[in-house]
Design a protein that fits this description.
Layout (H helix, E strand, L loop, with lengths): L15 H17 L18 E6 L5 H12 L3 E6 L11 H9 L4 E5 L3 H10 L4 E3 L7 H15 L6 E5 L4 H13 L2 E5 L8 H9 L3 E5 L2 H5 L4 E4 L10 H8 L6 H4 L7 E4 L11 H4 L6 H21 L3
Parallel strand pairs: 1-2, 1-3, 3-4, 5-6, 5-8, 6-7, 8-9
Helix pairs in contact: 1-5, 1-12, 2-12, 3-4, 5-12, 6-7
The protein binds phosphoric acid mono(formamide)ester and norvaline (NVA).
């Protein structure tokens, strides 16, 4: 009997040891290839002979290029398509697409408008499926963020991450990760843009330490990391109302000064300079956003290697 494929759909679905194993694998792989060309293959080549399909229903720079680079570094091959180029964009069902691609590739990464579509794809697929961002979460991003944090500040357990801004999909994946990695999460957001209550309740049940506030100054006070994201996510309705509500949540140098003196600043990018973050902060000495972007490659390689280690 064939094994169930190892999907990576959301951080909360995985146990702490599995997630920690991925972060440590990412660190090892990154260290082992320092100074190498981007297309050179890791010594163990865990994706040799394997292929990854990437499907995009929304725009992407980092996710697209980091999965491409990562899969090649693992010794595998990639195929990329936007859903509008596929029959998916003309009404072929998610399930039929998943069944067909499962006969043609060894794993699928999807960036979807609706989270349910990624779940449906995974249920119908017989190969691993990876969530490359949905309206509800962005798990690969947070794996890269944890890797980045630990490179600069050491073990994340017991330290405080302050999320400032919209309680959106990226914030949700921080909520999903808080208990498994043992960090404290402060969320400073306007009441009308609070995170998903189901996510918060699940995290609380798992023992996550999460504090909510509508005061950005209270949220960042003493934090070891300040994180923000765009005020208007892809597909968001009512951009003007969101921009108005989020105006007091800009991360500027006065706000950063309230965090721990060694706090780092993270942003998944793309940034809207002058909105959620000032140039002074994103280009300043505490900003680690370029390491964070690069770490998408290393973190996702660990996710892919874990998926492939499960066999088919
Ligand atoms: N952070 C992130 O996922 O970037 P892209 O939208 O460019 O993939
Ligand atoms: N919250 C943003 C993240 C982009 C990487 C969005 O969904 O558009």
């Amino acid at each position: 009997m064939s094994q169930a494929p190892r999907h990576f759909l959301d951080i909360w679905r995985h146990d702490p040891a599995t997630l920690r194993g991925m972060i440590e694998d990412a660190k090892r792989r990154k260290a082992a290839r320092r100074g190498w060309g981007q297309a050179e293959v890791d010594a163990d080549a865990p994706a040799r002979g394997k292929s990854l399909a990437m499907i995009f229903q929304k725009n992407s720079t980092r996710t697209r290029f980091s999965f491409d680079a990562g899969m090649r570094q693992l010794g595998g091959a990639v195929t990329i398509a936007t859903s509008s180029d596929m029959q998916l964009g003309r009404g072929e069902t998610i399930e039929d697409t998943a069944r067909v691609l499962s006969r043609m590739v060894d794993a699928v990464m999807i960036r979807a408008v609706h989270h349910e579509d990624v779940e449906r794809f995974a249920r119908a697929a017989s190969v691993p499926v990876i969530n490359g961002l949905t309206d509800r979460s962005h798990p690969c991003q947070i794996m890269a963020d944890i890797l980045t944090f630990e490179e600069h500040r050491g073990p994340i357990e017991g330290l405080t991450i302050a999320w400032v801004g919209d309680g959106n999909n990226v914030c949700a994946s921080f909520i999903h990760a808080a208990a498994a990695f043992g960090f404290k999460l402060h969320i400073a957001c306007p009441t009308i843009l609070h995170p998903d209550l189901v996510d918060l309740a699940r995290a609380e049940q798992s023992g996550a330490q999460i504090e909510m506030t509508s005061d950005p100054r209270a949220g960042v006070a003493g934090a070891d990391c300040v994180v923000t994201d765009t005020w208007v996510s892809m597909g968001d309705a009512d951009a003007t109302a969101k921009m108005d509500a989020l105006e007091p949540y800009q991360v500027d140098s006065r706000l950063m000064a309230l965090a721990h003196p060694e706090a780092i600043f993270l942003h998944c990018l793309p940034a809207h300079r002058g909105e959620e973050v000032t140039d002074e902060v994103i280009d300043g000495p505490q900003s680690q956003v370029w390491d964070e972007a690069e770490n998408r490659i290393h973190a996702q390689k660990a996710v892919l290697a874990w998926c492939f280690a499960g066999g088919r």
